Amino acid sequence: MHLTIYVIDAERKDRVIKVLAESHLDAMICNAASAVLLLSGYWPVMGASVVTFTKEGEVEVVLPEDEVELAGRTSGASLIPYQPSTLAALTTPIDSLAEPLRLLTARLGLSNATIGLQFDEGMQPATYASSLHFRSSLTNLLRQLLPKANYRSCDKALEQMEACKTPKELNAVQRASEIAAAGFEHVDDVLQVGRREAEIAAALQAAFQASTKAQAVERSYGFFFCMSGPNSARASAAYARTRQRPIAAGDLVMIHANTCADGYWTDITRTYTAGTPSDRQKKMHSAIFEARKKALQAIRPGAAACDVDRAARAVMNSHGFGDAFKHSTGHGVGFAAANANALPRIHPQSPDVLEVGMTFNVEPAAYFDGYGGMRHCDVVALTSEGASVFTKF
Known about the structure:
Distance between the termini: 28 Å
Radius of gyration: 22 Å
CATH topology of the largest domain: Creatine Amidinohydrolase
Strand order of the largest sheet: 4-3-2-1-5-6
């Protein structure tokens, strides 16, 4: 039985209308997948979709015709299908978008409007094995279609809106976190001395993809990584990398996952020991979990993000692991996964202030070259009462 029931996110719609009024914009026209999701509720597949949101609250998505059925199950926006390509001619999606966008913008009366566009080039989470990115081409096309319109950046407005989720969006991030847990539940079964990192990562990803929990959403997939021994010491890098190294007795084994459910992403890490933990590993564990506790206690509405980082870092310093904590304590999660610049930035130099509805990770860690690394990364939401951990497993 199909479990997805679309309920329009009225609060998100009201928030966007308010932002348009405050920004003196008549409309936003966006094609980045996260922006289409935010403004319409639909997470595009091939990246060839464009959303238009007007100050009156009209939401229209021009999208490939083969995505209409999927979009209709997840979005209440008006859907305008087009053919990105045909057998009659060799065309590109941006060529095919010209006519439906011309008709749409004319119908909405945007010829002299002030329109918000995405000008900044930022990170976008994957929507498919390959996807289309055409911000500059869309801008050029709109300038041709609406030469008298006034164009302004709406990047900062979108960034702020993505940072503070509505209750419906918070539920989506929490559901994504619960689905992700299915992979981690099988670690004890697959983490064995002698098995290669690649084997373990593949087994956990298979368990995640086979989970019955994933049936509650339209699209769920993710990336599981395994890094052991000296390879886990390199996990402070901006990306995770699974290798072919066999697990050795006593290794620290780090399992990292970025998973999504209908476009809402998680960023989760757990670290295990292959065998009985050594005294050194116990000390690392103790420091990291005390740092996690202090960071969670510092999370409250109005708190400075840098103070949360400071709370975690002070604990790591007190345990003698300050230099081993090589990255920030966290960053925004939800509409993005591995994006260190997503708001709020839980960083020593961050100017960000925490607000109710923000979701981010908390990931104290310690890394020692040639030996190993340990990190515990949770997805956290800020409520009026403080931090709510979505990844309690």
